[in-house]
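Researcher: Please translate sequence to structure tokens.
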Amino acid sequence: MDLHNVRAGRLSATLTALVLSSACTAGTVDSAGGEAQGKPTVRIALGVDASYAPFYLAVERGLFEKAGVNVELVKTEGGPAASEAVTAGTAQIAANADSTALPLMVNNPDLRALGVFQSSDRYLKVVLRDGITSPKQIKTMASIGGLGLYATHSYLKDNDIDPKSVKILQSSPPEIPGMLEQGSIDAYILFEPWAARGDAAGGHIAGRIGDFGVKYVQWLLADQSWLKDNEDVAGDIFKVVAAADKLVTDDPDAAAQASNQQVKLPEAQTAKVLPEITFAARGITDADVAESRKIVDFLLGQKLIKKAPDLGTTLLKGWYEKNSV
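Model: Translation complete:
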């Protein structure tokens, strides 16, 4: 499969969807942000799943407004779409996993990781088609890009399976459970609610990414061209996210209700999976940089990127401590 053509097609579709989404939001702001009622307007691009509960809760409780920032959440299909929106200027801040954002930093060296707002080795799960009782039986898997592909290869290698011997189809989260139900794939690794959808559609959950040594962190990201003039605003937004992280941890039921209000996620299921995620904001550490190098080595080995991003420039160690504490 030509990943370049696939990504180009998905990027075009994503940007079209984002333009439509932005056109439907209240207020009028340009791609560089703007002001609404005297407050700076910032679009935050993010996926639609429980891992973004702090943002949903912050919007529902008006926490961004109280901090003096007018925030619009731009919901994407997940995967690299959020950071691609920042690169395209459709959003000013994105929320993405490390292994998803790193390859994008090659083509957009101005993309900056500001800090971590959550992490987990439990939230992504392995789903096998009913009848598949051993990883050795897997012939075809589906995967999203970035974190999904990294986890898929790690899972196969951990089970002494050469990833080249398994057909790995690139797809989007909403499509993958249906592929399992139709029998066109044997397995996949995804977050909720898509793992549970597969479990209910002819599959069963057979493990979590921590079982084979994979853990992800989610970063807040921005483009340097916007960030250099808006560090105070970005810092205020991260302060709100940090506060919302604590609220989600203390009251997952309230976070689940906010997620339902914002993106229609089922409350009971969301409340159940939220404890699988560590919601805690912090700065980027040496350990994050070391893990990023491992991910970059994987991407280079798969020829998904031609060169490594400059981690010393793109990962802003100390930024969170300076601007959001």
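Researcher: Any highlights?
Model: The first strand starts at residue 34 and ends at 36.
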